[in-house]
Write a sequence for this structure.
């Protein structure tokens, strides 16, 4: 069974408190916009590590590809 965007969203929300999150995808390739206060003060690589940590082994087993924007609320508002 391929993961759904809703399932990937729930995985991320289990590990990160999100002010806003959207996930789109086709079961193998996903794109997400993740907005969280937890990203404040973190470099881009640290933000990505935080998201990958939230997904854990699911990145190896279930999710083939994920691209995402990891933004603070202020960064998201400025877009």
């Amino acid at each position: 069974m391929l993961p759904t965007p809703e399932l990937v969203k729930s995985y991320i929300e289990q590990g990160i408190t999100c002010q806003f999150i959207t996930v789109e995808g086709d079961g193998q390739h996903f794109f997400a916009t993740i907005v969280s206060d937890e990203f404040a003060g973190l470099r881009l690589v640290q933000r990505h590590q935080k998201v990958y940590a939230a997904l854990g082994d699911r990145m190896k087993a279930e999710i083939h590809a994920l691209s995402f924007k990891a933004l603070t609320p202020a960064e998201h508002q400025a877009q």
About this structure: The helical segments are 5-15, 44-55, 58-61, 73-78. The longest strand covers residues 29-35.
